[in-house]
Design brief:
With about 450 residues, the protein is of the alpha/beta class. It folds into three domains: about 210 residues, TIM Barrel, CATH 3.20.20.70; about 140 residues, Rossmann fold; about 70 residues, DNA polymerase, domain 1, CATH 1.10.150. The protein is about 40% helix and about 15% strand. The strands form two sheets. It has an eight-stranded parallel β-barrel, surrounded by five helices. The chain is elongated, with a radius of gyration of 27 Å. The relative contact order is 0.09.
Length: about 450
């Protein structure tokens, strides 16, 4: 259960948390680099010194504190209570191998900031109970400053967010290229080292990171949902998996035992080539594609069922004013056939196929174009997908993603859970999550 208590630092201070490292001074004074970062918009600054003696550490801390005071930014000392007290710093940050959090709290008093690093839910909960004011969670990515740090998953970050009340800052290997991968995971900001202090223009790099962090943490009301069709709304993947074998048998060819495995990575064109050149199917490539489409046309028109909870979810979302669309790799003609027979076509504003936009779902264009057709911003849309590569594409493009289980993608379950903002076993689990996003 989350604790209710007053903390000595607010979530806004976690937005862009800079940690010093003199490895990248390159002849410059640390104070010069710190001031550039403060000008760029750093919201909290931690002074980390592992090799300075106490006297020089205190002198340096006094100089840095003058700057943070001028910019009204909290000043934290890494793992040295004595130095923090000597310079009257705003607080101390400790790791799991440092002094116990409750002991640090007793030394610095109730009004100083106490930050604690955590890699697990258990560590985070324990830190909150010991009086921490914020949690640093990570390393989220591979980091050059802590080569022995194990990566913390997005799922763990989400779980920590669900189990503690205090502010959370994500740390470890974060830079401008990967920060948006943390969107929706519950962090209130990012802590960075080299992404600021190793940059040629520290002020500019800081300003760019702050914009990205604000976007990463921004909560926008969801107004629209883009559904995948096969494996998400329709339980059609078993039919797709068996369609190649059915075409071969209809033409007098016994399918090889490993056919399904062979076809997993093949496009329609490559499948046609394999059937013709390797299995002796007497058809043109166009004939193979047409034959598969004819069989699927019959399946969509006659017997492919809805996934559990699909109709009820669509009905409820429509009543609650959500815009909804379908983005599918299936030809639009076949998609419309199935959606109409199942009496759910009228729930959707648009139905878009990969053929319509000229790209498969390994690129985000279908999601981006569908969003435009809905008259929405990307931040207002959630993508619902069952396949790992589609979840990855949508997430990397900055969309919120809800992953849904389908047996055909069972081997990808852990990856889908890791990447998704929300994961569900079926569509009955979606609406409660959507309500919490508003």
């Amino acid at each position: 259960m989350k604790m209710k208590q007053k903390f000595n630092i607010d979530k806004e201070a976690m937005c862009l948390y800079a940690i010093t490292d003199r490895s990248w001074l390159n002849g410059k004074a640390l104070e010069e680099q710190v001031e550039a970062a403060l000008k760029g918009g750093v919201t909290c600054l931690q002074l980390r010194e592992k090799n300075l003696d106490e006297e020089n550490f205190i002198r340096e801390a006094m100089r840095i504190k003058t700057l943070t005071t001028a910019y009204n930014v909290p000043f934290i000392i890494n793992d040295n209570v004595k130095v923090a007290l000597a310079v009257d710093a705003d607080g101390v940050h400790i790791g799991q191998s440092d002094m116990a959090a409750q002991d640090v709290r007793s030394l610095i008093g109730k009004d100083k900031i106490l930050g604690v690093s955590a890699q697990t839910v258990e560590q985070a909960v324990k830190a909150e109970q010991a009086g921490a004011d914020y949690i640093g969670v990570g390393a989220m990515f591979t980091t050059s400053t802590k080569k022995d740090a194990n990566a913390t998953s997005n799922e763990t970050l989400k779980a920590i967010r669900q189990n503690v009340s205090l502010p959370i800052v994500a740390i470890g290997g974060i830079n401008k290229n990967n920060v948006m991968q943390l969107a929706g995971c519950g962090a209130d900001g990012i802590a960075v080292v080299s992404a600021i202090f190793a940059q040629e223009n520290i002020e500019e790099a800081t300003r760019e990171l702050k914009v990205l962090s604000e976007a990463m943490t921004k909560k926008t009301s969801i107004k629209g949902i883009i559904f995948d069709m096969d494996g998400t709304l329709l339980d059609s993947m078993p039919t797709w998996k068996g369609i190649g074998a059915k075409l071969l048998m209809n033409n007098g060819i016994v399918p090889p035992e490993d056919l399904e495995e062979r076809l997993k990575e093949l496009s329609f064109v490559d499948t046609a080539s394999y059937f013709i050149n390797d299995l002796g199917l007497k058809m043109s490539a166009e004939g193979v594609v047409a034959g598969i489409n004819d069989l699927m046309r019959q399946a969509y028109a006659e017997y492919i069922p809805l996934k559990k909870g699909a109709k009820e979810l669509l009905e409820s979302l429509k009543k609650n004013g959500y815009k909804m669309s379908v983005a599918t790799a299936t030809h639009r003609e076949l998609a419309l056939l199935g959606l109409k027979r199942l009496e759910i076509l009228d729930y959707f504003d648009v139905v878009v196929s990969c053929k319509d936009v000229g790209h498969w779902k390994d690129e985000p264009l279908i999601y981006q174009e569908t969003t435009k057709m809905m008259g929405l911003e990307e931040s207002e849309v959630v993508i619902v997908e069952d396949a790992g590569y589609c979840v990855k594409t949508a997430k990397e493009a900055g969309f919120k993603v809800a992953g849904v289980y389908d047996e055909a993608a069972e081997l990808e379950t852990e990856m889908i859970k890791e990447l998704s903002d929300h994961y569900m076993l079926d569509l009955t689990e979606m609406e409660d999550w959507l309500c919490k996003q508003c």
